[in-house]
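Query form — protein Costars family protein ABRACL

QUESTION: What is the three-dimensional structure of this chain?
INPUT:
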Amino acid sequence: MNVDHEVKVLVEEIHRLGTKNADGQTSVTFGTLFHDDRCANIFEALVGTLRAAKRKNIVNYEGEMLLQGGHDNVNIVLLQQ
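ANSWER: The structure tokens for Costars family protein ABRACL are given below.
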């Protein structure tokens, strides 16, 4: 998969797993994405795909790099529906 396609699939997975926040934006925790079996099978490098999506202003989250365990509760917010 190329990066643009992976980011598109990531957006679909955030919609599938996430919930609407008070601002009407869809959000999901990193841990939910990371531990989801479907996401594990789709993404070879979930963290890299998230970073690419953040650079393209498609998602936002605190920090630069998310690591399993320590960042499981970090919210990933979808900026573009």
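ADDITIONAL NOTE: The longest strand covers residues 26-29.
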